Amino acid sequence: MVEGFKKRKKYVVDRRFQFRMISSFLMSVLIALCIFTLCISIYYWAATMAGENMFKEFITIDRQVIEEREVDVNGETVMQQVSSTKTEAGVKRWELVLPPIIINNLIIILVISVLGLRYSHRIAGPAYRMKEDIKRVLDDGESMQIQLRKNDKLQELVGEVNRLIAEYDKLRNASG
C-alpha cells in the first residue's frame, strides 16, 4: 500500500454533493414511479369509462374443502370424507393491485438510495482526496502523487492532476 494512502470507511465525505446527487437520483426514480402509478390509474379509469367497472368488481376465491362427516350406513355410524367448495369473501381488484405497487415503489426508492450513496462515494471520495492533496501540495510544498482506490471514478482526472503536480514541482525546483 502506498504511504499516506488509507482505505476510507466513511461513505459520506462531501455531504452536500452526495446528497444532491442522491436527491437527483431519487427524484428521477420518484417521477418514473409516479408516471407508472398514474398509467395504472389511467388504465383503470379508461376501463371504467368503457363500461367495465374494475373497482367494484370482486374477485372471489374458491377453495376445495374436504370434511369428515358421520354418515349412517345400515344402522352403523361411519366416518366419510366429503368434498365441498367454499367461496371466500370477494376482494376488490384494486385492493389486490395497489399494495404491491406501493411496496414495489418503496423498495425501489430504498435500493436507489443505497446505490446512489455507494455510487456517489466513488465520485465524492476521489474529489475530496484530490482537493485535500492539492491543498497539501500548495500549502506545504509537499511533492506527492494522488492515489485512488481501484474502483473509484475520476481515475483519468487524477492522472492529469498528478502530471500537473509533477510539472509544478519541476517549475518550483527550477525557480527555487
Q: What percent of the residues sit in helical stretches (DSSP H or I)?
A: 55-70%
Shape: elongated
* Category by helix and strand content: alpha+beta
Low-confidence stretches: none
> What is the β-strand count?
4
The neighbouring-strand order within the major sheet is 1-4
Query: What is the residue-averaged pLDDT?
Result: 77
- Beta-strand share of residues: 15-25%
Largest sheet: 2 strands, antiparallel
User: What is the tally of helical segments?
Assistant: 3
Ends: how far apart?
Answer: 32 Å
Instruction: Return the string of H and E elements.
Output: HEEEEHH
Compute the gyration radius: what is it? 33 Å
Number of domains: 1
Oligomer: single chain
Describe this entry's structure for a reader:
This protein has 176 residues and is an alpha+beta fold. It has one domain (15-171). It has 3 helices and 4 strands. The chain has a two-stranded antiparallel ribbon. Strands 2-3 form a two-stranded antiparallel sheet. Helix 1 runs antiparallel to helix 2 and helix 2 runs parallel beside helix 3. The chain is elongated. The mean pLDDT is 77.
Short account of what is shown:
By secondary structure, the protein is an alpha+beta fold. The protein is 59% helix and 16% strand.
